[in-house]
Amino acid sequence: MRTTLLLLLACVLFVPGLVYGQAGEASAPGWGPLQLLEREVAPGQKRKFRYQHTQTFEGSFLDTVVFAARGTKPGPTLCLTALIHGDERNGFEIVRETFLRLDPASLSGTLIAVPAANANGFRTGSRYMPDRRDLNRAFPGKPGADNTSLIAHILYSALKEHCDALIDLHTGSFDRANLPQVRVDLANPQALDMARRFGAAVIVGGAGPSGSLRREMMDAGIPAIIYEAGLPLRFEPMEIREGVRGVRNVLIGQGMVAGQASAPTPGERIFSKTRWVRVPLGNGGVFYPVRKLGDNVRPGDSIARIFDPFTDEQFDVPSPLAGQIIGMAVPQVVFSGYALVHVASAPEGAR
Ligand SMILES: [Zn+2]
Questions:
Q1: Rounded distance from Cα 173 to ligand 1 centre (Å)
Q2: Strand (E) or helix (H) holding 7
Q3: Where are the domains of the chain?
Q4: How many whole angstroms from 227 Cα to the centroid of ligand 1?
């Protein structure tokens, strides 16, 4: 009985995964296989494998998939992470499509992706971890602690060991949508260079909150950016396409794949400040947007309309500042203080 259980456990822990490409074919001298999370990816190969750190009957601590492609020529390691918020699904498809199109035979360097960091959230549609904590506030994590801290520690340690640069993929939270945008610490030249190479029309400055993967990777000296696009709980073709294009642009920019990077349309804008416009005190009700994502607004312009369901009165919410709308709630019932429209302001230079 015990032997059977051990065999079963071994099968679960060491499923071979999917392997593409011919190992060891025409790889550069001195450029060997990638050793990653107890697996090996040979030059010219790409692999998808399950990774389970440890397991209990009540639930796996970390049960997710890892995608890794090892080029035939030396080069940097670009890492992609998605679904750190388990309901932000666009990122998963950006990773999957990027990996599908990547030919390791013509890759210089390595691509490592964790497309469903909060794998349980991916299955259940939950932003949070099973203990209801936010994984993106738990980095760098620590061993021997609670579930979320332990998973943060495993992911952070593996990424810090291998990555030369990181792109973390997100969407708006709950019932809010984001205009496709890249978020970056404008004070870091390497990260800003990667953000600009991504080719998004909107770049938003900021270091990110303490405990977020991007912030902690930056603090460890690894340039990191976030791509934010669309709504949670959806697979949105345009936002996914823009993300795949951006990641490819970064791969080209890092010299990892050959090709021509595409320029952003209608042109790049870099913003240093953003502000959420909220429902004024006492004006809750049924919210309908009167603007679209990407619209430019001036101070005093109406940017949201709310109907009082009892009196049928209508309230228009004015924009307090000039800028571009980069995030917005979807139509819903809203209460005083609810964040409706996210406006980016103070362009540092429209190039
Ligand atoms: Zn997120």
A1: 6
A2: helix 2-13
A3: 2-253, 276-346
A4: 10
Ligand 1 centroid to residue 88 C-alpha, Å:
6
In this predicted model, what pLDDT tens digit does every residue of 76-100 receive, in sequence order?
A: 999 999 999 999 999 999 999 999 9
| Confidence check: pLDDT of 9 > 70 | no
Render pLDDT for 265-291 as a digit per residue (tens, 0 to 9).
Answer: 778 999 999 999 999 998 899 999 999
Q: Which of 160, 115, 119, 113 is nearest to 141 (CA)?
A: 160
- Ligand 1 centroid distance, CA of 267 (Å): 25
What is the reported pTM?
A: 0.91
What's the gap in Å between 171 CA and the centre of ligand 1?
6
Structural fold of domain 276-346: OB fold (Dihydrolipoamide Acetyltransferase, E2P) (2.40.50)
Neighbours of ion ligand 1 (CB under 5 A): 85, 88, 170
Q: Which CATH number fits domain 2-253: 3.40.630.10, 3.30.70.20, 3.40.190.10, 3.50.50.60?
A: 3.40.630.10
Q: Where are the alpha helices (DSSP H) in 144-294?
A: 147-162, 189-198, 213-219, 237-253
Name the average pLDDT for the chain: 90
